[in-house]
Write a structure and sequence with these properties.
Strand order of the largest sheet: 3-4-5-6-7-8-9-10
Organism: Hyphodiscus hymeniophilus
Structural class: alpha/beta
CATH architecture: Alpha-Beta Barrel
Distance between the termini: 51 Å
Strand content: 5-15%
Number of domains: 1
Shape: globular
GO molecular function: oxidoreductase activity
Protein name: NAD(P)H-dependent D-xylose reductase xyl1
Number of helices: 13
Keywords: Oxidoreductase
InterPro entries: AKR, Aldo/ket_reductase_CS, NAD(P)_OxRdtase_dom_sf, NADP_OxRdtase_dom
CATH superfamily: NADP-dependent oxidoreductase domain
CATH class: Alpha Beta
Bound molecules: NADP nicotinamide-adenine-dinucleotide phosphate
Number of strands: 10
Order of helices and strands: HEEEHEHEHEHEHEHEHHHEHHH
Length: about 325
Protein backbone atom coordinates (compact mmCIF):
# COMPACT_ATOMS: atom_id res chain seq x y z
CA UNK A 1 0.00 0.00 0.00
CA UNK A 2 2.78 2.46 0.86
CA UNK A 3 4.29 1.78 -2.57
CA UNK A 4 1.05 2.72 -4.21
CA UNK A 5 0.81 5.88 -2.16
CA UNK A 6 4.32 7.04 -2.93
CA UNK A 7 3.89 6.28 -6.63
CA UNK A 8 0.62 8.15 -6.82
CA UNK A 9 1.09 10.92 -4.34
CA UNK A 10 -1.02 13.70 -5.82
CA UNK A 11 0.01 16.25 -8.42
CA UNK A 12 3.61 16.46 -7.27
CA UNK A 13 4.69 13.21 -8.92
CA UNK A 14 2.86 13.87 -12.17
CA UNK A 15 3.71 16.25 -14.96
CA UNK A 16 1.35 19.14 -14.65
CA UNK A 17 0.53 22.33 -16.48
CA UNK A 18 -0.24 25.50 -14.58
CA UNK A 19 -3.56 27.01 -15.55
CA UNK A 20 -4.02 30.78 -15.90
CA UNK A 21 -5.46 30.91 -12.37
CA UNK A 22 -2.32 29.33 -10.92
CA UNK A 23 -3.85 25.89 -10.38
CA UNK A 24 -1.98 22.77 -11.55
CA UNK A 25 -3.62 20.38 -13.99
CA UNK A 26 -2.16 16.96 -14.89
CA UNK A 27 -0.84 16.81 -18.44
CA UNK A 28 -2.36 13.38 -19.10
CA UNK A 29 -5.82 12.43 -17.93
CA UNK A 30 -8.35 9.73 -18.54
CA UNK A 31 -11.43 10.21 -20.72
CA UNK A 32 -14.71 8.63 -19.63
CA UNK A 33 -16.81 8.87 -22.80
CA UNK A 34 -18.21 5.53 -24.03
CA UNK A 35 -17.02 3.50 -21.08
CA UNK A 36 -19.98 1.24 -20.32
CA UNK A 37 -21.73 2.08 -17.04
CA UNK A 38 -21.18 -1.36 -15.56
CA UNK A 39 -17.39 -0.99 -15.90
CA UNK A 40 -16.88 2.63 -14.96
CA UNK A 41 -16.49 2.33 -11.15
CA UNK A 42 -13.82 -0.39 -11.42
CA UNK A 43 -12.25 1.36 -14.37
CA UNK A 44 -11.81 4.64 -12.49
CA UNK A 45 -10.58 2.82 -9.39
CA UNK A 46 -7.97 0.88 -11.40
CA UNK A 47 -6.90 3.97 -13.31
CA UNK A 48 -6.27 5.77 -10.01
CA UNK A 49 -4.26 2.78 -8.89
CA UNK A 50 -2.26 2.97 -12.14
CA UNK A 51 -1.46 6.63 -11.47
CA UNK A 52 -4.13 8.68 -13.25
CA UNK A 53 -5.28 11.76 -11.37
CA UNK A 54 -7.36 13.62 -13.96
CA UNK A 55 -10.71 12.20 -15.09
CA UNK A 56 -12.65 13.82 -17.88
CA UNK A 57 -16.36 13.29 -17.37
CA UNK A 58 -19.54 14.92 -18.61
CA UNK A 59 -23.28 14.88 -18.09
CA UNK A 60 -23.58 13.61 -21.64
CA UNK A 61 -21.47 10.51 -20.96
CA UNK A 62 -24.20 9.21 -18.64
CA UNK A 63 -21.75 7.55 -16.26
CA UNK A 64 -20.97 10.17 -13.62
CA UNK A 65 -22.63 8.22 -10.78
CA UNK A 66 -20.44 5.18 -11.45
CA UNK A 67 -17.30 7.29 -11.97
CA UNK A 68 -17.96 8.85 -8.57
CA UNK A 69 -18.28 5.40 -7.02
CA UNK A 70 -14.78 4.55 -8.28
CA UNK A 71 -13.41 7.78 -6.80
CA UNK A 72 -15.14 7.24 -3.46
CA UNK A 73 -13.75 3.72 -3.21
CA UNK A 74 -10.21 4.86 -4.07
CA UNK A 75 -10.38 7.53 -1.39
CA UNK A 76 -11.87 5.12 1.17
CA UNK A 77 -9.08 2.60 0.44
CA UNK A 78 -6.45 5.30 1.01
CA UNK A 79 -5.12 5.29 -2.58
CA UNK A 80 -5.59 9.06 -2.84
CA UNK A 81 -7.18 12.02 -1.16
CA UNK A 82 -9.72 14.21 -2.91
CA UNK A 83 -7.12 16.98 -3.23
CA UNK A 84 -4.85 14.63 -5.25
CA UNK A 85 -7.47 14.29 -7.97
CA UNK A 86 -8.46 16.63 -10.77
CA UNK A 87 -12.06 15.94 -11.70
CA UNK A 88 -13.47 17.50 -14.85
CA UNK A 89 -17.12 17.63 -15.79
CA UNK A 90 -19.09 19.40 -18.48
CA UNK A 91 -22.25 21.44 -18.79
CA UNK A 92 -24.57 19.95 -21.38
CA UNK A 93 -26.27 22.03 -24.09
CA UNK A 94 -29.76 21.79 -22.57
CA UNK A 95 -28.65 23.58 -19.39
CA UNK A 96 -27.30 26.81 -20.89
CA UNK A 97 -30.02 29.11 -19.56
CA UNK A 98 -28.78 31.20 -16.64
CA UNK A 99 -31.01 29.67 -14.01
CA UNK A 100 -30.30 26.09 -15.16
CA UNK A 101 -26.54 26.11 -14.73
CA UNK A 102 -26.17 25.96 -10.96
CA UNK A 103 -28.87 23.33 -10.33
CA UNK A 104 -27.43 20.97 -12.91
CA UNK A 105 -23.88 21.50 -11.67
CA UNK A 106 -25.10 20.64 -8.16
CA UNK A 107 -26.82 17.52 -9.48
CA UNK A 108 -23.63 16.43 -11.27
CA UNK A 109 -21.59 17.03 -8.10
CA UNK A 110 -24.05 14.94 -6.16
CA UNK A 111 -23.84 12.18 -8.81
CA UNK A 112 -20.06 12.10 -8.38
CA UNK A 113 -20.35 12.43 -4.58
CA UNK A 114 -18.11 15.49 -4.68
CA UNK A 115 -18.20 18.96 -3.18
CA UNK A 116 -16.45 20.64 -6.09
CA UNK A 117 -15.20 20.02 -9.61
CA UNK A 118 -11.64 21.05 -10.43
CA UNK A 119 -12.79 22.10 -13.87
CA UNK A 120 -16.27 22.60 -15.32
CA UNK A 121 -16.44 22.99 -19.07
CA UNK A 122 -19.08 24.31 -21.46
CA UNK A 123 -19.29 21.19 -23.63
CA UNK A 124 -20.39 22.96 -26.83
CA UNK A 125 -21.14 26.57 -27.78
CA UNK A 126 -24.67 25.34 -28.51
CA UNK A 127 -27.71 26.17 -26.39
CA UNK A 128 -30.60 23.73 -26.62
CA UNK A 129 -34.08 23.65 -25.12
CA UNK A 130 -34.14 22.66 -21.45
CA UNK A 131 -34.97 19.07 -20.60
CA UNK A 132 -35.95 18.32 -17.01
CA UNK A 133 -33.51 15.70 -15.64
CA UNK A 134 -36.50 13.94 -14.06
CA UNK A 135 -37.85 13.35 -17.55
CA UNK A 136 -34.64 12.35 -19.33
CA UNK A 137 -31.05 12.25 -18.16
CA UNK A 138 -28.66 12.60 -19.80
CA UNK A 139 -30.80 14.57 -22.26
CA UNK A 140 -28.74 13.91 -25.40
CA UNK A 141 -29.13 15.95 -28.56
CA UNK A 142 -32.72 15.28 -29.50
CA UNK A 143 -35.77 16.72 -27.85
CA UNK A 144 -38.26 14.16 -26.67
CA UNK A 145 -40.97 16.18 -28.60
CA UNK A 146 -43.43 14.67 -30.99
CA UNK A 147 -41.11 12.30 -32.83
CA UNK A 148 -38.00 12.65 -30.69
CA UNK A 149 -35.86 13.56 -33.67
CA UNK A 150 -35.61 17.33 -33.41
CA UNK A 151 -32.73 19.39 -32.10
CA UNK A 152 -34.40 22.43 -30.56
CA UNK A 153 -32.22 25.42 -29.74
CA UNK A 154 -32.72 27.82 -26.84
CA UNK A 155 -32.22 31.58 -26.86
CA UNK A 156 -29.53 31.54 -24.14
CA UNK A 157 -26.39 33.34 -25.24
CA UNK A 158 -22.87 32.13 -24.50
CA UNK A 159 -22.57 35.20 -22.28
CA UNK A 160 -25.61 34.17 -20.20
CA UNK A 161 -24.11 30.74 -19.72
CA UNK A 162 -20.59 31.93 -19.00
CA UNK A 163 -21.77 34.41 -16.36
CA UNK A 164 -23.69 31.62 -14.63
CA UNK A 165 -20.56 29.46 -14.76
CA UNK A 166 -18.54 32.31 -13.24
CA UNK A 167 -20.88 32.32 -10.29
CA UNK A 168 -20.09 28.62 -9.74
CA UNK A 169 -16.47 29.66 -9.17
CA UNK A 170 -17.57 32.33 -6.68
CA UNK A 171 -19.60 29.71 -4.82
CA UNK A 172 -16.66 27.30 -4.76
CA UNK A 173 -18.62 24.64 -6.58
CA UNK A 174 -15.92 24.59 -9.25
CA UNK A 175 -12.28 25.68 -9.10
CA UNK A 176 -11.86 26.55 -12.79
CA UNK A 177 -14.12 26.94 -15.79
CA UNK A 178 -13.36 26.18 -19.41
CA UNK A 179 -14.67 25.86 -22.93
CA UNK A 180 -14.87 23.07 -25.45
CA UNK A 181 -15.47 22.95 -29.19
CA UNK A 182 -15.14 26.73 -29.43
CA UNK A 183 -13.51 28.35 -32.47
CA UNK A 184 -11.35 31.49 -32.35
CA UNK A 185 -14.24 33.89 -32.96
CA UNK A 186 -16.29 32.47 -30.06
CA UNK A 187 -13.29 32.69 -27.71
CA UNK A 188 -12.50 36.25 -28.82
CA UNK A 189 -16.06 37.29 -28.06
CA UNK A 190 -16.11 35.53 -24.69
CA UNK A 191 -12.86 37.21 -23.64
CA UNK A 192 -14.50 40.64 -24.13
CA UNK A 193 -16.80 40.11 -21.16
CA UNK A 194 -15.34 37.24 -19.14
CA UNK A 195 -14.48 38.22 -15.57
CA UNK A 196 -13.20 34.69 -14.98
CA UNK A 197 -11.17 33.83 -18.06
CA UNK A 198 -11.51 30.31 -19.46
CA UNK A 199 -8.72 28.18 -17.99
CA UNK A 200 -8.87 25.59 -20.76
CA UNK A 201 -10.09 24.91 -24.29
CA UNK A 202 -10.84 21.27 -25.01
CA UNK A 203 -10.75 20.45 -28.71
CA UNK A 204 -10.49 17.58 -31.12
CA UNK A 205 -6.76 17.48 -31.82
CA UNK A 206 -4.80 14.81 -33.63
CA UNK A 207 -2.44 14.57 -36.60
CA UNK A 208 -5.34 14.71 -39.09
CA UNK A 209 -6.76 17.85 -37.42
CA UNK A 210 -4.01 20.11 -36.17
CA UNK A 211 -5.89 23.47 -35.97
CA UNK A 212 -2.62 25.30 -35.38
CA UNK A 213 -4.11 28.82 -35.51
CA UNK A 214 -6.69 27.92 -32.86
CA UNK A 215 -4.08 26.30 -30.60
CA UNK A 216 -1.72 29.27 -31.03
CA UNK A 217 -4.48 31.78 -30.37
CA UNK A 218 -5.75 30.03 -27.23
CA UNK A 219 -2.26 29.65 -25.86
CA UNK A 220 -1.44 33.30 -26.61
CA UNK A 221 -4.43 34.20 -24.43
CA UNK A 222 -3.15 32.00 -21.62
CA UNK A 223 -5.77 29.30 -22.21
CA UNK A 224 -4.49 25.73 -21.82
CA UNK A 225 -5.44 23.48 -24.74
CA UNK A 226 -6.57 19.95 -23.98
CA UNK A 227 -6.60 17.49 -26.85
CA UNK A 228 -9.50 15.09 -27.11
CA UNK A 229 -9.72 12.19 -29.54
CA UNK A 230 -5.95 12.42 -29.79
CA UNK A 231 -5.90 9.01 -31.53
CA UNK A 232 -8.00 10.52 -34.34
CA UNK A 233 -10.48 8.13 -35.90
CA UNK A 234 -9.89 5.43 -33.28
CA UNK A 235 -12.55 6.70 -30.85
CA UNK A 236 -15.13 6.98 -33.66
CA UNK A 237 -14.51 3.61 -35.26
CA UNK A 238 -15.98 2.09 -32.11
CA UNK A 239 -19.13 4.17 -32.83
CA UNK A 240 -19.19 2.98 -36.45
CA UNK A 241 -19.01 6.57 -37.72
CA UNK A 242 -18.83 6.10 -41.48
CA UNK A 243 -16.00 8.46 -42.36
CA UNK A 244 -13.94 7.22 -39.42
CA UNK A 245 -14.27 3.61 -40.53
CA UNK A 246 -13.11 4.60 -44.04
CA UNK A 247 -10.09 6.62 -42.85
CA UNK A 248 -6.61 5.05 -42.81
CA UNK A 249 -5.64 4.21 -39.27
CA UNK A 250 -3.19 6.62 -37.64
CA UNK A 251 -1.24 3.83 -35.99
CA UNK A 252 -0.60 2.29 -39.41
CA UNK A 253 0.83 5.53 -40.70
CA UNK A 254 4.55 5.28 -41.28
CA UNK A 255 5.34 8.70 -39.80
CA UNK A 256 3.29 8.09 -36.70
CA UNK A 257 4.70 4.64 -36.24
CA UNK A 258 8.16 6.15 -36.21
CA UNK A 259 7.48 8.75 -33.57
CA UNK A 260 4.59 8.99 -31.11
CA UNK A 261 0.97 9.92 -30.65
CA UNK A 262 1.17 13.18 -28.76
CA UNK A 263 3.45 16.19 -28.64
CA UNK A 264 3.85 19.72 -27.40
CA UNK A 265 2.52 21.40 -24.29
CA UNK A 266 -1.08 20.43 -24.68
CA UNK A 267 -2.84 18.16 -22.25
CA UNK A 268 -4.44 14.90 -23.43
CA UNK A 269 -7.25 12.75 -22.11
CA UNK A 270 -7.13 9.40 -23.94
CA UNK A 271 -9.82 6.84 -23.26
CA UNK A 272 -9.08 3.14 -23.09
CA UNK A 273 -10.98 0.13 -21.80
CA UNK A 274 -7.81 -1.88 -21.48
CA UNK A 275 -5.50 -1.82 -18.47
CA UNK A 276 -2.31 -2.17 -20.50
CA UNK A 277 -3.31 0.75 -22.77
CA UNK A 278 -4.13 2.78 -19.66
CA UNK A 279 -0.58 2.37 -18.42
CA UNK A 280 0.92 3.01 -21.84
CA UNK A 281 -1.06 6.23 -22.26
CA UNK A 282 -0.04 7.54 -18.87
CA UNK A 283 3.59 7.37 -19.99
CA UNK A 284 2.82 9.59 -22.97
CA UNK A 285 4.01 12.40 -20.72
CA UNK A 286 7.45 10.93 -20.24
CA UNK A 287 8.98 11.89 -23.58
CA UNK A 288 9.32 14.96 -25.79
CA UNK A 289 9.38 14.88 -29.57
CA UNK A 290 12.01 16.66 -31.62
CA UNK A 291 11.04 19.62 -33.81
CA UNK A 292 11.45 17.43 -36.92
CA UNK A 293 9.21 14.72 -35.51
CA UNK A 294 6.55 17.29 -34.67
CA UNK A 295 6.80 18.76 -38.18
CA UNK A 296 6.43 15.36 -39.83
CA UNK A 297 3.39 14.47 -37.74
CA UNK A 298 1.79 17.89 -38.30
CA UNK A 299 2.22 17.39 -42.05
CA UNK A 300 -0.47 14.69 -41.86
CA UNK A 301 -3.00 17.44 -41.14
CA UNK A 302 -5.89 17.34 -43.62
CA UNK A 303 -8.59 19.10 -41.59
CA UNK A 304 -10.34 15.80 -40.94
CA UNK A 305 -12.80 16.25 -38.08
CA UNK A 306 -14.79 13.43 -36.54
CA UNK A 307 -16.72 15.06 -33.68
CA UNK A 308 -18.95 17.48 -35.56
CA UNK A 309 -22.72 17.94 -35.20
CA UNK A 310 -22.82 18.74 -38.92
CA UNK A 311 -21.47 15.26 -39.68
CA UNK A 312 -23.78 13.56 -37.19
CA UNK A 313 -26.98 15.51 -37.76
CA UNK A 314 -26.55 17.63 -40.88
CA UNK A 315 -27.07 20.84 -38.86
CA UNK A 316 -25.37 23.10 -36.25
CA UNK A 317 -22.26 23.84 -38.34
CA UNK A 318 -20.34 25.33 -35.40
CA UNK A 319 -16.93 24.73 -36.92
CA UNK A 320 -17.73 26.32 -40.31
N1 LIG B 1 -15.23 17.85 -25.34
C1 LIG B 1 -15.71 17.02 -26.24
O1 LIG B 1 -16.61 17.34 -27.04
C2 LIG B 1 -15.14 15.63 -26.33
C3 LIG B 1 -15.38 14.84 -27.47
C4 LIG B 1 -14.81 13.57 -27.56
C5 LIG B 1 -14.04 13.11 -26.53
N2 LIG B 1 -13.84 13.88 -25.40
C6 LIG B 1 -13.04 13.36 -24.26
O2 LIG B 1 -11.81 12.84 -24.75
C7 LIG B 1 -11.68 11.47 -24.35
C8 LIG B 1 -10.89 10.71 -25.38
O3 LIG B 1 -11.47 10.84 -26.66
P1 LIG B 1 -12.01 9.60 -27.52
O4 LIG B 1 -12.65 8.62 -26.62
O5 LIG B 1 -12.80 10.19 -28.63
O6 LIG B 1 -10.77 9.01 -28.23
P2 LIG B 1 -9.27 8.58 -28.04
O7 LIG B 1 -8.80 8.63 -26.65
O8 LIG B 1 -8.53 9.33 -29.09
O9 LIG B 1 -9.38 7.08 -28.56
C9 LIG B 1 -10.02 6.07 -27.85
C10 LIG B 1 -9.81 4.80 -28.65
O10 LIG B 1 -8.41 4.55 -28.79
C11 LIG B 1 -8.10 3.24 -28.28
N3 LIG B 1 -6.81 3.36 -27.57
C12 LIG B 1 -6.57 4.01 -26.41
N4 LIG B 1 -5.27 3.95 -26.10
C13 LIG B 1 -4.66 3.26 -27.09
C14 LIG B 1 -3.29 2.88 -27.33
N5 LIG B 1 -2.31 3.24 -26.48
N6 LIG B 1 -3.03 2.16 -28.45
C15 LIG B 1 -4.03 1.81 -29.29
N7 LIG B 1 -5.34 2.14 -29.12
C16 LIG B 1 -5.64 2.86 -28.02
C17 LIG B 1 -9.24 2.87 -27.37
O11 LIG B 1 -9.43 1.49 -27.44
P3 LIG B 1 -9.68 0.59 -26.14
O12 LIG B 1 -10.69 1.28 -25.30
O13 LIG B 1 -10.14 -0.72 -26.69
O14 LIG B 1 -8.33 0.52 -25.48
C18 LIG B 1 -10.43 3.59 -28.01
O15 LIG B 1 -10.97 2.83 -29.07
C19 LIG B 1 -13.13 11.00 -24.15
O16 LIG B 1 -13.24 9.85 -23.36
C20 LIG B 1 -13.74 12.22 -23.52
O17 LIG B 1 -13.43 12.28 -22.14
C21 LIG B 1 -14.36 15.13 -25.31
Amino acid sequence: MSKILSATNGHKNLSTLTLNNGKPMPLVGHGLWKIPNENVADHVYNAIKAGYRLFDGACDYGNEVEAGQGVTRAIADGLVQRSDLFIVSKLWNTFHEKDRVEPICRKQLSDWGLEYFDLYIMHFPIAMKYVDPKIRYPPGWFDSGIDGTQIIQSSATIRDTWEAMESLVEKNLVKSIGTSNFNCASIMDLLRYAIVRPATLQIEYHPYLVQQALVDYAQSEGITVTAYSSFGLQGYVEMDLEHAVKTPHLFQNETVRKVAEVHGRVAVIPKSDSESMLKKNLHARSFDLTEDEIKSISALNCGLRFNDPLVYFGCLPIFA
